[in-house]
Amino acid sequence: AESSLPYSPALCPITSISDKVRSFAVKERAISFTGEDFDVFDAENNEPFMRVRGAMLHLPGKDKMRIRSSESDEEVAVLDRVLMAVTPTYDIYRGGAEKIGWIEKEMVAVTESFDVFMEGKGGIGPFKPPPAYRISGDFLERNFVMKNGQGQIVAKVMKDGLIQFDSFNHYQVQVAPGMDAILVLACACAIDEEFDEEHKAKKEQES
Question: What is the distance between the alpha carbons of residues 132 and 141, in angstroms, rounded to a whole number?
Answer without folding.
Answer: 24
